[in-house]
Amino acid sequence: MTNAGKYTVIEGVKCFNPEVMSSYADYPDSGFQLTDENEENSFWVRSRNRLFKAIVYNQAKVGRTKLLEIGCGTGGFIRHIVENENLEITGSEVYISGLLYAKNKLPDVDFIQFDIVNGYLDQQFDLVIAFDVLEHIGDDVTAMANINRLLRPGGRAIITVPQHMFLWSRLDEIVKHKRRYSRKELVTKLKNNGFDIIFATSFVFILFPLMLVSRIFDKGFKQLKSEKVELEKRVKFPLLLNIIFDFFMRIDETLIKAGVSLPFGGTLVIVAQKND
């Protein structure tokens, strides 16, 4: 683990773990460009941003809330919450190419290069969020323990991961997932690393049958020479489908915002509090 507070400025970014900033061992470099180009048109990205924004605002303290996003990528989610003046936001990402996209669009936000497994920050936060991050990390237990250390007493974490190993497909391989989680596995790991579970729900519930069918077919999909092309084929949808799927995703959002814990779905969402 690196010494707290020590960093090197590279391309205008504070880099706490520069030794891994360009390795792309756990996420494809092309994924950042694809996300930056298509996130506003993707029903999945739009829906998750709406839901996660509501959860963040619900969990934020009254008054000033110091927030850290682990794995902020190109800063897409932060763009949806930066308007909230009560949030003091820091965005972190292990790979620098995503941060360069983020800094270009949000020059006033504090973005840092940081490895949650091998790095350490000399500050604590009220709220730490990690959306679809842990599945990329080999040592996810250490990552959870370090997230706990980054929280102030009583601080909370909002964590999302892909759910159900039976949904494993070529897409998981392309984006370098290490695993998909069961609810029991993630809850147990979080409890063992100093967290109490406040709320847990599945997401992508209404569209789950379609997701299941698509993943079954994807298991036998012929591999192409370019993983970038393969990724594009799996995450880009025609405009009409995006509109239809967006409508059904809003049902999930409404139920979760009402406090309903959905029993199954493609994504698992957990709100956990540091156990003091």
Provide a quick synopsis of the model.
38% of the residues lie in helices and 21% in strands. It is an alpha/beta fold and 276 residues long. Its EC number is 2.1.1.-.
The SSE string, one letter per element, is EEHHEHEHEEHEHHEHHHE
CATH T-level topology = Rossmann fold
Determine the strand fraction and express it as a percent band: 15-25%
**Low-confidence runs of at least 5 consecutive residues:** none
Class per helix and strand makeup: alpha/beta
User: Looking at the structure, what is the overall shape?
Assistant: globular
GO molecular function: methyltransferase activity
Pfam family, one: Methyltransf_23
Transmembrane segments: 197-217
GO biological process, one term: methylation
Notes on the structure:
With 276 residues, this protein is an alpha/beta fold. It has one domain (8-274): Rossmann fold. 38% of the residues lie in helices and 21% in strands. It has ten helices and nine strands. The protein has helices at 29-38, 43-59, 78-81, 96-105, 140-149, 170-174, 183-192, 208-219, 227-235, 239-257, and strands at residues 8-10, 13-15, 65-70, 87-93, 110-113, 125-131, 151-162, 195-203, 267-274. The chain has a nine-stranded mixed sheet, sandwiched between helices. Helix 2 (43-59) runs parallel beside helix 10. The longest helix is centred in the C-terminal third of the chain and has 19 residues, at 239-257. It is globular and about 45 Å long. It starts with 7 loop residues before the first strand and ends with a strand.
